[in-house]
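Lab notebook, bench 4. The sequencing result for the construct came back, and we need a structural model before the next group meeting so we can plan mutations. Quick request posted to the team channel:

Model the 3D structure of this chain.
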Amino acid sequence: MSKPWLLVSPASRGIGLQIARRLLKTTDLPVITTARKDLDGTAKQILDGIDVDAQRLQVLKLDVTGKRLGFCKSRAYKTNEAPTDESSIAAAADHCKYRFPSAESYLRLAFCIPGILYPEKSPAQIDHAHALQTLQINTLGPLLLSKHFTPFLPKKSTTISPLPNLPSQAVLALMSARVGSISDNALGGWYSYRASKAAVNSIAKSVDIFLRQRCGEHGMCLSLHPGTVKTGLSEKFWGSTPKEKLFSAEFAAERLCELVKDVGLQGRGKCWDWEGKEIPP
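Done. Here's the predicted structure in token form:
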């Protein structure tokens, strides 16, 4: 029987770190995580205060901007190729291919959630470098993670068994936001961020169409809106957000893990908020 494993990228802080901790606590599967730097420090943060087998966790070096191709200090892996925009993603995928041969293993749940925010209030505030970085991280990041990690999802012929606290089918979850909805946009602003998240919703739909063909009912893709979460990305808006709508990263991780478990195949290719409500495109 094929053995499942889990992926959270990145998991160095915020929601990703808390999702990794939750998956370690609520499953008994290997959890692969990624960080741009300080891999040992990231592993220590993830494992802090939880009673689990530390060998289930592995942190790989991965940078969706392509700036840092490197070497994993513990359980080393590296590539001899010259750095390219996606070389660290490819290197991480190659390592997973080695550790989890396709004949024996499959990816059961993946959270691909890189993110950055430059909140422009008017077109005059749009900065070329900031906008490019926003699209590179928020849009190309999930797109290239999908490229390199969809091959690990189960095929139609793969035998999948029910597992506690996990979806019935394999899920590739991409991080979106409510502001990525074009039809729901009544306020404007946040030009590059809105565009990057609208693109994520398009990517999730297209990748899901591909997975319908490759995986059938064994694999799906969707996008997620976690709400306003108390992380560095949203720090400037903590004061203007009602307390009941400002969530801890731990709460957001819990809700997103429950959401991907409960939404089912009818939720494939769509964007869902933390309450389990569909966000229109």
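The two ends are 39 Å apart (CA to CA).
Will bring this to the meeting.
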